[in-house]
Amino acid sequence: MTEPSRGRPRKLPESDLELLKLEAAGHTHREIGAKFGVSRQAVTLRFNQMGEYVQAARKDVSAVLPWDLSQHPASSKLKDSEAYIGLRAFVRQRLGLELSARGQLSLKTFLNHVRAGEILSLHAVHGFEWEPWDSARDGDIVIRWPEGVPRDKNAELLTRTD
Questions:
Q1: Is 0.90 topped by the overall pTM?
Q2: Torsion angles phi and psi, residue 130, rounded to 5
């Protein structure tokens, strides 16, 4: 049995603003939880209670993407990655949905990669990676579409905007 770390809080702060600032600074829910000695789920629950996230909206945005991350062995890590959060923010913006502070920051980073001529790709082993964009292979979208997956009407939400 391990001894609890001393001097470390065991609950989230009462101030929602403190949590929002940490998230806006780019900290994941897992990192915020570790800071306060609580689980990632406790942090996400708190953000849900604040109304920061709506699960249905998350599913709507995820439905646009050609990857099913739920079956990936590193699903949580992938969903917490800056690249994936930026991609989701890109789609949310294209749908005219509101972005959280963290989503806005992640979107800026995402767009910087796109403007630099990169495309987001999902690898089975390495997870999300930025690769050089190949207009002949990739067309005008911001992700490397998986081989064997037909593009549907949702792919137009992933087109480059610049």
A1: no
A2: -90, 130
Contacts 24+ apart (CB under 8 A), 14-22: 16/46, 16/50, 19/43, 19/46, 19/47, 19/50, 20/50, 20/52, 20/101
Burial-class residue 91 by CB neighbours within 10 Å (0-12, 13-18, 19+): buried
> To the nearest whole percent, how much of the chain has pLDDT over 70?
87
Domain span including residue 94 = 54-158
* Residue 67 shares a structural domain with residue 117: yes
Model confidence at 19, pLDDT cuts 50, 70, 90, reads: confident
d(CA 28, CA 12) in angstroms, rounded, equals: 14
Are residues 117 and 41 both part of a single domain?
no
Among 53, 69, 86, the domain-final residue is 53
Read off the pLDDT of each residue in 98-107 and give the average, rounded to a whole number.
89
Q: The dihedral of CA 123, 144, 40, 26: what is its sign? A: positive
Which tops the pLDDT comparison, 5 or 11?
11
> Tokens 């939400």 appear where?
157
Half-sphere exposure in the Cβ direction for 7 (13 Å, CA) = 0
